[in-house]
Design a protein that fits this description.
Shape: globular
Helix content: 55-70%
Order of helices and strands: HHHH
Structural class: mainly alpha
Number of helices: 4
Radius of gyration: 12 Å
Number of strands: 0
Length: 80
């Protein structure tokens, strides 16, 4: 699913998961909090914050679909 892919990409880009703590704490954070932008933890490409935070939106209706996420990542890759 897009949320899990967003979490994996977040960790790959920042070196840390979107949320940290015990399993219960992480579950609570995923339900109640938005993750910090990736740029708060690493020097990432401009625009990556929006792409990953959209993939990690708590409300599934606000998340990217796979095609949209793929296109956004391709646009970022072409800028580099």
């Amino acid at each position: 699913d897009i949320y899990r892919l967003g979490a994996v990409l977040y960790e790959a880009c920042t070196g840390r998961p979107p949320f940290e703590g015990t399993p219960a704490e992480v579950l609570g954070q995923t339900l109640d909090d938005d993750p910090a932008p990736p740029s708060a933890h690493a020097d990432v490409a401009a625009g990556l914050d929006d792409v990953l935070l959209t993939a990690l939106a708590r409300d599934p209706t606000e998340r990217s679909d796979a095609d949209t996420l793929h296109e956004a990542l391709q646009r970022l890759a072409r800028r580099r």
